Amino acid sequence: MPVIRKITVIIASYIILLNGALDIGWATCLANQNTLYSEELWVELDVSAEQRKRIDEMIVQAAKEILKNQPNLKNASMLDLLEYESLVSNRRNQVNEMISKILTTEQQSIFDNQLEIQEQTRNLSALSLLSLNLSEKQQPLVLYSLIGSQKQIWSIISDKKLSWEERRKKLKKVNAINKLQQHLSKDQINTLKIWSDLLNRSQT
Q1: In the chain, N or C terminus with fewer CB closer than 10 Å?
Q2: 185 or 181: which carries more pLDDT confidence?
Q3: CA-CA distance, 64 to 22, in Å (whole number)?
Q4: Quick one: average pLDDT of 82-110?
Q5: What is the pLDDT of residues 114-125, one digit of tens each?
Q6: Is the alpha carbon torsion for 131, 136, 137, 141 positive or negative?
Q7: According to the 3-state scheme, what is the secondary structure of 168-190?
């Protein structure tokens, strides 16, 4: 697979992981439409104090491995990035599965519905970036920015010094896509606006 194609695949994977809200310039901010990062769903759950404690333990354990294994972007190969993306995805899925095991039937139904809605939004978000036809110069810049946002998200979600409400507030300020605007042309930003409008309609 050509190097650029590999980078494009990784970028799509990270967008699916991050589910960033499209708040670029005048684009509608989907965060205001309750677009959440996957991790944020964990601290949005209406659960008991004991369940919160157990969920926090799951999150912290997963975060330790993810943050410890983040590759050095200056020296990382495509294989390193692919392996890291796979690790993040696997740990997220594991946390979802473990959380599901301690939820009541009603809680599980709500959680499943949130995950389903978010999956649809993630897929559209991935397509939005792939539609930009990023140049060879832009692609690594976009990729590194996404990985940096991923680290920020996991650092916040696993910070037990913060309450769940405080973590939610901090997560809402992490906008992975917004950080990319400095690497995009005006035409590409306009393209993202079109996708933003589409995402808005999909949530109404």
Answers
A1: C
A2: 185
A3: 28
A4: 91
A5: 888 877 777 777
A6: positive
A7: HHHHHCCCCCHHHHHHCCHHHHH
